[in-house]
Amino acid sequence: MPGPTVTFQPDARTVVAEAGQTLLDAAFAAGIALNSVCGGRGICGRCQVRVVAGEAEVDEGGRVPGGGEILACLSRISGDVTVDVPELSRLEGEQILTGAERNGPFMPIPEEAAGERPDAAALAPRDPLVFALPLQLPQPTIHDCLSDLQRLTRELRRAGGIQDLVVPLDVLRTAPQVLRDANWEVTAVLARTNGAHELVALRPGTATSGLYGAAVDVGTTTIVAHLVDLATGTTLGAAAALNRQATYGDDVISRIIHAGEPGGLERLRDAALGVTNVLIGGLAQAHGVARDDIVGAVLAGNTTMLHLFFGLPPAEIRREPYIPVISMPPAYRAGEVGLRVNHHATVAWMPGVSSYVGGDITADVLAAGMDGTDELSMLIDVGTNGETVVGNRDFLVCCACSAGPAFEGGGITWGMRAALGAVQRVKITPGGGLSWSTIGGGRPRGICGSGLVDLLAELLLADYLDRAGRLRPDAPVVRQGPDGLEAVVVPAGESASGRDIVLTSADIENLLRAKAAVYAGGSLLTRRLGIDIRDIQRIYVAGGFGTYLDITKAILIGLLPDVPVERVTFIGNGSVAGAKMALLSQEAWRRAALVAQKMTYRELSTDTGFMEEYVSATFLPHTDCARFPRACAQLGRQD
To answer: C-alpha angle 211/214/215, rounded to 5°?
Structure first.
């Protein structure tokens, strides 16, 4: 007998659910991503829905005070029910903005918006992970009666110097027919994986074109995919979407906890894998590429994303001594992984370093070229984990600190990701008020990371905020709120929700903690290396957040070190750029492995100096103005 049905409005989507299942899980099954920063634990209060027909069993704490809304994560299905999902409870409205036209729930993105460094390809010669080798085999005779496999092996050794061939059984099963139908003129599609050459496919004829690969950044927040022509190295297209794992929590710890619940790991794996398959499939369809012709994929992501994507239990990542199941995985076949491309396609994940410095950071270093220069550099990935790398061709040292999702909108009353309606720029007007601009130019829905940095800097410059992060009660935009002083950023009459968009004192504390963690990690790392952080010759900022960041304001609040602006370089999505380099170049792949092996990981939680650095960095820009001479001079303070 079918279970109860759940209908989501205004989408008019209906799914059959199980009694006792939460509305949050049913929404995910219906393809509706609800905002659930806390991972379905009823803490964040963002997955609000309203029952319009039928009823749901609401757990304690699941009813929103002062209204008829309930939390989807704390509401269970007991019978047929229809719920309305308001815009502010949805993730779909928070698409990855690239200036491209929307196409369904996913957005094709131009090369420059995908984080491609113009000179990245020049950092390594093109020699793809999967390649085609045309062969003209001598036909068997009574005097040359080698088996088909021996004949193929002999010719591969002769034509390509290949002596370590691995042939999957089902590829071998098709070989006799292909060889004879093609009159012994064939093309071997070969992957260099796990120290050997694997025969991915045997194709009739000697054409070497028509082979494609995918480079994918499996990020905590977003997933970005590029479709690449392996013969030419050309990127045919790129697409991006929110990682639907966000339904189960904004940060990796929430997801690790959810993975430990019954069926949780499978849900998280299906969420990331499903989005990746849709992105690659959409790109293939848009460019007339058959899925079977996609014969290789290189993915990059942090260590938790690696575990969740491959269905590996991640629980030990968050338990001391923080040991992952794997950090440098071997290559797998697409059929094993569940990636919907050629069944034998090679699927490789960029090698990582530790539980909290993963393959995405290796890819960043590769894309930035840090490992190939004498220049002393620092790479900062301003995200939930706040990874930092310091070094050059001679050494690389890295760390990660729990910055939290504040600069991605998490834990901020009106915080949101960079999306349509997000306030991204803020200025103090001559009259003392606040002016703002939004992504897309529409009415404000919230404030994204770059807007939050702008806002802190402008409040500080106007002396509406002191160096300890306290709002001044007499400032024109400051008022007493229900939980203390707050700054009114957008009045209710101008916002999309009809409510005041504010920055509360608690929000400011969260932002100061996040920026302090990022700065303290880099500062302590350089200190332990005997380097003055201001002597860093190049600072690379990775990730989508950095793309829209105002460098001068990021330095003013103490998020980035106080160095000349020209020393700061944004590399955009270095994760997907590095993955693509490894896909297209064996040398780049070897470099990635060497980078991961070379990087020395420093565990900050055991370093007694970290808390000292962290506390000092919770001021604006810092307690020690000698570290921020330009910023403090701009603020008119030299103390």
So the answer is: 140
DSSP string, 500-549: -EEEEHHHHHHHHHHHHHHHHHHHHHHHHTT--GGG-SEEEEESHHHHT-
For residues 437, 567, 544, 285, the Cα torsion angle rounded to the nearest 10 degrees is 120
DSSP per-residue codes, 184-228 = TEEEEEEEEETTEEEEEEEEESS-----EEEEEEE-SSEEEEEEE
User: What pairs with residue 530 in β-bridges?
Assistant: none
Q: 537 with 616, same domain? A: yes
| 78 shares its domain with 186 | no
d(CA 338, CA 330): 16
All residues at 6 or more sequence positions from 272 whose CB lies less than 8 Å from its CB, including other chains: 218, 223, 243, 244, 245, 305, 308, 309
- What single letter denotes the amino acid at residue 105? P
* pLDDT at residue 36 tops 80: no
End position of a domain, from candidates 155, 182, 204? 204
Is 529 in the same domain as 630? yes
- Count of structural domains within the chain: 3
Q: What is the phi-psi region of residue 280: left when phi exceeds 0, alpha when psi lies from -120 to 50, beta otherwise?
A: alpha
Do residues 258 and 251 touch, judged by C-beta distance below 8 A?
Answer: no
Does a structural domain hold residue 350?
Answer: no
Chain centroid to CA 324:
19
Q: Taking the model in full, what pTM does it have?
A: 0.82
Do 387 and 522 share a domain, yes or no? yes
Residue 413 domain-assigned (yes or no)? no
Length of the chain: 639
Which residues are bridge partners to 471 per DSSP? Answer: 465
* Residue 214 to residue 226: CA distance in whole angstroms: 6
Mean pLDDT over all residues of the chain? Answer: 88
Whole-angstrom distance, CA of residue 169 vs CA of residue 184: 20
The distance from CA 389 to its chain's CA centroid, rounded to whole angstroms, is 18
Nearest to 525 by CA among 639, 398, 363: 398
Residues 534 and 615 in one domain: yes
Q: Per the domain annotation, does 262 fall within a domain?
A: no
Whether residue 46 lies inside any domain: the answer is yes
What pLDDT does 389 receive?
97
- Residue entry with tokens 């001391």: 320
Per-residue burial over 313-352, b if 16 or more Cβ lie within 10 Å, else e, is ebeebeeeeeebbebbbebbbbbebbbbbbbbbbbbbbbb
Does 243 have pLDDT greater than 50?
A: yes
Coil, helix or strand at residue 281: helix
Answer whether 200's CB lies under 8 Å from 130's CB. Answer: yes
What are 430-466's pLDDT values in tens digits?
999 999 999 889 999 999 999 999 999 999 999 999 9
Residues 75 and 165 in one domain: no
607 lies in which domain range? 359-405+512-635
| 28 lies in the same domain as 171 | no
Residue where one domain finishes, among candidates 89, 113, 148: 89
